Amino acid sequence: MKTSQRFESAIKKLYRAFHNDELHPECCKQCAVGNILDHSDAWKHLSDDHGSTKLNYVGQVHQRLGRRFNGYTPYELLQIESRFLRACNYQLPLRHGHFKPEDPKDKSILFDGLCEVVGFLCELDGIPNVMDYTKLFEVENDQPKYEYIK
Fold this sequence. Notes:
The protein has one domain. It is built from five helices and two strands, in the order H-H-H-H-H-E-E. It is mainly α. The longest helix has 19 residues, at 107-125. A two-stranded antiparallel ribbon has the order 1-2. It is globular. The chain has helices spanning 5-19, 32-36, 57-64, 74-87, 107-125, and strands at 139-140, 143-144.
């Protein structure tokens, strides 16, 4: 399967962040988008609220100019972050008093967030979801439809 440079780069960064404990949903430099953008928090100026998919004036200008950040448009970045936070069980946008997980660095919570992000990155690039394992369990005539290859 052929993938884009932006996809490969994003996956490597997210993989590294997850395994090096450098993924934190509440930190603009260590969240999904912060990691994709090399620990930069400049993206937070594209919206008024962390977790919102609504571009503010600055975000709209960058979007209209066709600006891309490590291959992603401002709107795509906000969607990535929103999906990550929602899958990590955050009430959006992030605000004091809104629901959030007790332990935001819990690996199972972060894994759920990353599964959602990876699926969305695949969708953006028009490729099959690399996290979809359901084909392994499809059957035809009471036999596995696909052979599991080690």
